Amino acid sequence: TIWILDGFEWKPAREIRKGDFLVVPIVKSERRDYSEDELWLYGLYLAEGCTEWKPRKQYLTTLYFGKHEEELVEKVVEKIREVFGYNPSVRYTRTAIAITISKKEIVQKFLRFGRKSTEKRIPMDVLLQSPELLRKLLEGYAEGDGCRKKYRLTLTTVSEQLVHDLRFLCFSRLGIPMGVYRRRGERYCIEGRAVS
């Protein structure tokens, strides 16, 4: 929708030009199907987790943290115990700390958010939760792949779908303006392997 002097006008996307104003709907919903801590954990999983799903063999959800994030690891373990009544395993490697859940019913819940970083997404029933709960999801995500500066929050992802879901969450659910910027693939070396 484009604002014209005396009202709105519908235009096909290909006709939108620099300087046009877009109207974004605000979706109202007060659903509360999850606890704040559960959505915070899902947000953190979106940033730091992955899931292995091999039917009848192995079901694992793992969240990875840097060695310097010991306090955060303790917080996550405690929240997993409180929310799911499950005691996850914690494994220390030379460069990281891994928290792993291997109970199929819990792993299924995380799997809904995507298996690996490029497949991450926010399910629609989660996007329709109350604004207070969605802020907790955003807080969890920012704890992992976010950077806070005064009045600005920067979030990072390699998932195209997650970019769209975060845009919907911010604009249409929370009324928060959001920009999307692309950064071309910098390559790093971790434990002898190249990562982007």
Tell me what you see in this structure.
The protein is an alpha+beta fold and 196 residues long. It is built from six helices and ten strands; from the N terminus they run E-E-H-E-E-H-E-E-H-H-H-E-E-H-E-E. The strands form four sheets. A four-stranded antiparallel beta sheet has the order 3-4-6-5. Helix 1 (36-48) packs parallel to helix 5 (131-145). The protein is globular and about 60 Å long.
Query: Could you spell the SSE succession in H and E letters?
Result: EEHEEHEEHHHEEHEE
Based on DSSP secondary structure assignment, what is the total number of beta strands? 10
List the uncertain runs.
1-5
- Relative helix content: 25-40%
Give a brief rundown of this model.
The chain has 196 residues and is an alpha+beta fold.
Secondary structure topology:
Layout: E1 2-4, E2 7-9, H1 36-48, E3 49-54, E4 58-66, H2 70-84, E5 89-92, E6 96-101, H3 104-111, H4 124-127, H5 131-145, E7 146-149, E8 152-155, H6 160-173, E9 188-190, E10 193-195
Antiparallel strand pairs: 1-2, 3-4, 4-6, 5-6, 7-8, 9-10
List key phrases describing it.
single chain; 4-stranded antiparallel beta sheet; two-stranded antiparallel sheet; 6 helices; 10 strands
